[in-house]
Design a protein that fits this description.
Elements (H helix, E strand, L loop, with lengths): L10 H16 L1 H12 L11 H13 L4 E5 L2 H7 L5 E8 L1 E12 L17 E3 L2 E3 L7 H19 L5 E9 L10 H6 L7 E4 L6 E5 L1 E10 L14 H19 L13 E9 L9 E10 L5 H17 L5 E10 L8 H16 L5 E4 L5 H6 L4 E3 L7 H4 L7 E3 H18 L3
Parallel strand pairs: 3-6, 3-7, 7-14, 8-13
Antiparallel strand pairs: 1-2, 2-6, 4-5, 5-15, 9-11, 9-12, 10-11
Helix pairs in contact: 1-5, 1-12, 2-5, 5-12, 7-8, 9-12
Length: 425
C-alpha cells in the first residue's frame, strides 16, 4: 500500500517509524548536550580558522561510535580562497546491500557574533526550551539532527529493520565563503558520489530551489591631491558616488523582475561595504565598493555579470582620469530542482506533516547556499532540517540566535523516518 506521494505505508514501516520516533525522543537530552558542545567551539568565518571546530565534532561523533573520515583542504587552496583552515568530515553508514547513497550535509562555520547579545554567543545557554548561540540555527543544529537521525536508524537496524543503502554525513566548514572548500571540494575530488542529498534548513518547509549570488569588488582609481587644490587630483570618491547611483538605480529596476518559483520574489542588489580615501584633507585616490547581486533561478549568471561590468565601466568612462578594476570574489549559481528530488520531498513531507501537524510546503528561498553544489554535480537535493519558519524567527546571523529544541527533536525524527522510507528494502 502507498500514500498519494508514493511512500510505503505498510504496518511494518509504521512500526519502524514509531521505533525511530521513540528512539529520538528517548535520546533528546543527549542530543541537546551534543549540540551544546558543537556550538561552544567558535568557527567565525571570516577569519575561517575552522579546523578546531571540525576536530571537536569528529571527537563527539567518534564518541557515539561513528567512524569519521577527516579531509583537510590544503593550505595552498585556502590561501587564495581567503580562509585559514578547513577540515571536512564524512561518516559513511552502510546498511544492507543495494539501495541508494544519501548524503546529509550541514555546515559548521558561522558569521561572527557581532554586537547586541544578551547571552554569551558561545555557551549554548538553554532557557525556556530554546538554545541560544551563534550558529545554533544556521546550521550547527543540523549537525545534531542528522547525527541523531542516523543513530536512530542504526538502532532500528539492530532491532530488525531491513534497510538497504548508505547514509553519509557531510559536515563542512566554509558555507559562508561559498562552499568550494566544503561540498565543492568533496564532490570535485570524488570523495563522495551520492544518489540523493539533504542539506541543512528549517523544519516548516522543504526547500527545492534557491537564488544564486554574484559578488563583485569594484576598485575605483583616481589621483590624490591636497585638499586645498582638489582640481590637481582625480577624485575617486566622486566617480564612486556616480557608480553607486547607477547601481542603486539598477537595484530599483530589479523590483519589477519576478521569479516563477514559489517563495522567490525578485533579484536584489546591495552595496554592502565601502572603503577608501587617505585622510580628511586629501582627495581620495582609491575607493572600493563591494556589491552583492542575488539572482533568481531564471537568470543567467554570465549575462548578469556582463551587464553589471558594462554599466560600471560606462559610468567610469564619464569621469576623465578614473580607472576601475572589477574582481569577482564569488559566483554561486542558483539551485534548481533536479529530477528525482520529488522522492525526497514526498518522504520528508509525509513525516513532517505527521509530526509537526501543519502543512509543509515545497518552496524556493531567496538566499543562496552550498546545496547548489550537489545540484551542479547532478545530485537531486532538497534542504530540510531543524528550525523555525523563517530566518528572522531564529535571529539567524543576528544577536541572540536561537533554536526551539522541540523543533530539533521533531525534525530529527522526520529525517530519520524519511531516510527509513528511502532505504526501505
Amino acid at each position: 500500500m502507498t500514500d498519494p506521494r508514493g511512500t510505503s505505508t505498510t504496518a511494518g514501516s509504521d512500526a519502524i517509524h514509531a521505533a525511530l520516533v521513540a528512539h529520538v525522543d528517548a535520546h533528546h537530552a543527549r542530543q541537546v548536550a551534543f549540540l551544546r558542545e558543537i556550538v561552544r567551539v567558535p568557527s567565525d568565518t571570516p577569519p575561517g580558522d575552522n579546523a578546531p571546530a571540525a576536530a571537536r565534532a569528529a571527537e563527539l561523533l567518534e564518541g557515539l561510535g561513528f567512524a569519521v573520515e577527516r579531509h583537510p583542504v590544503p593550505a595552498s587552496f585556502l590561501r587564495d580562497y581567503g580562509m585559514a583552515s578547513v577540515v571536512n568530515l564524512i561518516v559513511r553508514q552502510r546498511f544492507g546491500d543495494g539501495g541508494p547513497t544519501i548524503a546529509l550535509n550541514a555546515h559548521g562555520d558561522v558569521v561572527p557574533p557581532g554586537e547586541g547579545w544578551t547571552r554569551p554567543p558561545y555557551e549554548g545557554v538553554v532557557e525556556e526550551g530554546r538554545m541560544y548561540a551563534r550558529g545554533v540555527a544556521v546550521s550547527k543544529s543540523d549537525i545534531a539532527s542528522y547525527t541523531f537521525a542516523l543513530e536512530a536508524l542504526r538502532a532500528a537496524e539492530r532491532g530488525g529493520a531491513k534497510l538497504c543503502g548508505t547514509v553519509e554525513l557531510h559536515f563542512t566548514y566554509d558555507e559562508e565563503f561559498g562552499g568550494l572548500a566544503g561540498p565543492g571540494w568533496l564532490l570535485s575530488h570524488s570523495l563522495t558520489k551520492p544518489d540523493y542529498a539533504i542539506a541543512a534548513s528549517f523544519s516548516y518547509a522543504i526547500v527545492t530551489a534557491h537564488n544564486g549570488c554574484l559578488q563583485l569588488e569594484v576598485t575605483v582609481h583616481g589621483k590624490a591631491a591636497h585638499g586645498s587644490m582638489p582640481k590637481t587630483g582625480v577624485d575617486a570618491l566622486r566617480a564612486a558616488t556616480a557608480i553607486l547611483d547607477g547601481l542603486y538605480a539598477e537595484a530599483d529596476r530589479l523590483d519589477a523582475v519576478k521569479s516563477k518559483v514559489p517563495g522567490i520574489d525578485s533579484p536584489t542588489l546591495v552595496v554592502g561595504r565601502i572603503e577608501g580615501g587617505i585622510n580628511t584633507n586629501v582627495v581620495p585616490d582609491r575607493v572600493v565598493l563591494k556589491l552583492d547581486r542575488r539572482m533568481i533561478p531564471e537568470e543567467s549568471p554570465d549575462r548578469v555579470e556582463e551587464a553589471l561590468r558594462a554599466r560600471i565601466e560606462a559610468i567610469a568612462r564619464a569621469h576623465p582620469g578614473v580607472r576601475v578594476d572589477v574582481r569577482r570574489p564569488l559566483l554561486a549559481r542558483a539551485l534548481e530542482p533536479r529530477p528525482g528530488h520529488e522522492r525526497l520531498v514526498g518522504a520528508l513531507r509525509r513525516h513532517a506533516e505527521r509530526l509537526f501537524g501543519v502543512p509543509i510546503p515545497a518552496v524556493g528561498v531567496p538566499l543562496y547556499a552550498d546545496a547548489r553544489l550537489y545540484g551542479e554535480h547532478g545530485v537531486p537535493i532538497v534542504m530540510y532540517g531543524a528550525g523555525p519558519r523563517t530566518i528572522l524567527e531564529a535571529n539567524a546571523k543576528r544577536a541572540d540566535e536561537n533554536l526551539v529544541l522541540d523543533d530539533l527533536r521533531r525534525a530529527t525524527a522526520v529525517v530519520a523516518c524519511a531516510l527509513a522510507d528511502l532505504l526501505s528494502a
